[in-house]
Amino acid sequence: MVKAYDRVLAARSADKISIQDLVAGITDDFMELHGDRAYSDDPAVYAGIGTIAGQSVTITSIQKGNDTDENIERHFGSAEPSGYRKALRLMKQAEKFNRPIINLINTPGAYPGMDAEYKGQGYMIAQSIMQGLKLKVPYISVIVGEGGSGGALALAVGDTVWALEDSIYSVLSPEGYATILWKDSSKAAEAAEQMQLTPKELLDNEIIDKIIPEVKDAKSMQNFKEALIEKINELNKLPKEELLAQRHERYRKFN
Amino acid sequence: MKNNKSEETKDLQTLMDKVPDHLFIKCPVCEENFYNKKLGEYKLCPNCGYGFRLGAQERINLTVDEFTPIDSEISAPKRFLGDEKYAGKLEKSKKATDLNESVQTGFAKIGDTEFALGVMDSRFIMGSLGTATGEKLARLFEQATERNLPVVVFSCSGGARMQEGIHSLMQMAKVSQAVSDHAEKGLLYISVLTDPTTGGVTASYAMEGDINISEPHTLIGFAGRRVIEKTIQQRPPKDFQRAETLLKNGFLDAIVKRDQMKSVLAKLLAWN
Fold first, then answer.
1. Is the confidence metric ipTM above 0.95 for this complex?
2. Bridging pattern class, strands B254-255 and B211-214
């Protein structure tokens, strides 16, 4: 049996497919769109419009970097308020043009910086959640690697949430959890066992709806793409009221 | 000489030992020491106006004329109680606060104006957002929506409840959804962020009000100060994550002193 912490390491592995490769793999064509229309463009959030099997979709994502320079620029996959504002702007635009939304998430959490606080990190995550829940178009989220806390939830409040095989989704990092509860960050492996953060446990707890086989070659990419197409077609058939009612039930049942 | 001095010190220490600790209070914000009677019924620092932390019931007594609690029996789901350490913490918090969860919810009146009221209590596991906290708040908004009533929530929280893991995170979505349903009906939600409001509560319902207000010097933030210091390797200024800074940066509508809170709420409720 794979230990929970091995899953944490796999989710963080540098060998994990990059978000941009994933987007290129599932779309026939894609164009990145920039900017939050307020003051900035956060490179941790990669977003735009593309087509999947002829269907236009809006994709927003949180990405880590492929090398040190990119990682510094993208804060190791931690978005700033500007990034969430950009994502929300493009999701609202998707709603306007009746385009399904696909969100790909690989983030250890929202960026804990001074400027991020000054510019309303909490406010922007709150708005992404509250407004995201009400978007009247199919909304699919996929945890690709790390799904860290509120920073991940901000882009994962749609109709269905999936997770790649080697991914985790948690209230905070196992290191942070161990620090807060046991004042010892070295107990991360022990924390990971307790936190129920692996895809299997998340599925059992109905936090996610599906586990996607790890995307690492053309075949697994095709499999992921087909799963997306099937789900989009299914959600597209639902009347808007029904779509929103089902989504409402998905989040109301967490008690 | 040396001996004399130590004698003197000893005398002073003896004298000081005779002064009961609780007679003098130090303000955690301005660090001024003052006689406890100066705190007054609103528990305000006479120097800087900081409001000392209040329990939920104390807050309710100071803010509204009438209050009828609902869902008081709701507490953490049984599936979490296998964790003995957590179960112990819950028991301790229940005893300390006379509450079953970190929020008290119900229907309140100021004068003739009725509204739904939620008040968090920081003594209950740091006011953390547990599954039952989320359930009580969601029900509060749902009932208010049904009865066409405005909602006022006094937040104070360390954020998500670690012991309930991912289930705690999901409460942010569940409560936000209830806030949004309430808003869609054209109803007013006033969020009052009190000391401290942080983490997942700031990143959900505390920042979703039509009107977001706070009290002087309230700590409001998403990330914890220590995490930020570790990330950026520098120490943020003293006013970092304080209500005055959020007001300046555009994230609060107003800062209201505690002894004015009731009249300000009455006014805002009447105008909406």
1. yes
2. parallel
